[in-house]
Specification:
Blueprint: H1 7-10, H2 26-70, H3 78-94, H4 114-147, H5 156-172, H6 175-204, H7 206-243
Helix pairs in contact: 2-4, 2-5, 2-6, 4-5, 4-6, 6-7
Keywords: Membrane, Transmembrane, Transmembrane helix
Protein name: DUF6535 domain-containing protein
Pfam families: DUF6535
């Protein structure tokens, strides 16, 4: 009886693993392995994107509620304008019996406070970033669904070719970096919201705003460290390797 060929007696004496059976179809084995890899990859991305999508949707609703309330501070109050006009009418009625032209006080032009402008700007950008994250989550889910769509009528070799074409398209459109950038966008949106909230509370009471300001500063330091330090380390390693 012939001895089963092994890596030990054919190529490398340090390896003792048998060769795959000759009867197994190589294309089928490739399709099975790649399908398992794609399934795990898409499942991980889909779970992560769904979590971020729920967070972004809820966070957008919270920011919208604050923004709608704060927008009143940068709009002219109709009641104040009506009071000024009524005061002018009253002054005209008092001087109606005289021949002199009544001196009416000018209606002051409305000028929103600087704090309200800053707060609305911070919350507006925060809401825009949160909605951008929602849009990217939806797009990525659609791309992953199209990537996982099967083609049962194709042969195994054409199935692999179709899969490779879609995989290259997935990378060409930047799906991996887009998925990785969504948490950064959401954290930036959260930081801007906390900064605006701290400013909003500080405008009313500085003592109450101090804990929130400290918390916002800690979040900013952590966010900056975790975002910038890996890039700085990679850049320093690249510079040191080029010098060597």
């Amino acid at each position: 009886m012939a001895e089963e060929p092994t890596w030990n007696n054919m190529m490398n004496p340090e390896m003792h693993f048998p060769l795959p059976p000759q009867s197994e179809e190589p294309w089928g084995r490739c399709v099975s392995l790649i399908s398992e890899h794609d399934k795990e990859l898409c499942a991980g991305w889909t779970e992560e994107i769904n979590i971020m999508l729920v967070f972004a949707a809820l966070f957008s609703a919270i920011v919208t509620a604050f923004l709608v309330e704060c927008l009143k501070d940068i709009r002219e109050d109709p009641a104040h304008t009506s009071a000024q006009l009524l005061y002018q009418i009253l002054a005209q009625m008092r001087n109606a019996s005289t021949d002199q032209e009544p001196e009416l006080p000018p209606v002051p032009e409305f000028s929103p406070p600087a704090s309200a402008i800053w707060i609305n700007s911070l919350w507006g950008v925060s809401l825009a970033l949160s909605l951008l994250a929602v849009m990217l989550c939806i797009l990525c889910l659609q791309w992953l669904r199209a990537f996982r769509r099967s083609h049962p009528g194709l042969s195994r070799d054409r199935t692999l070719a179709m899969r490779q074409m879609k995989y290259e398209g997935l990378n060409y459109w930047g799906t991996p970096p887009i998925v990785s950038s969504i948490p950064i966008i959401l954290l930036s949106s959260l930081f801007l919201f906390l900064a605006g909230l701290a400013y909003y509370i500080y405008d009313s009471s500085a003592i109450v705003a101090i804990p929130l300001i400290v918390l916002t500063g800690i979040i900013a330091v952590i966010f900056g460290a975790t975002t910038l330090l890996p890039g700085i380390i990679d850049l320093s390693n690249l510079i040191s390797s080029t010098r060597n």
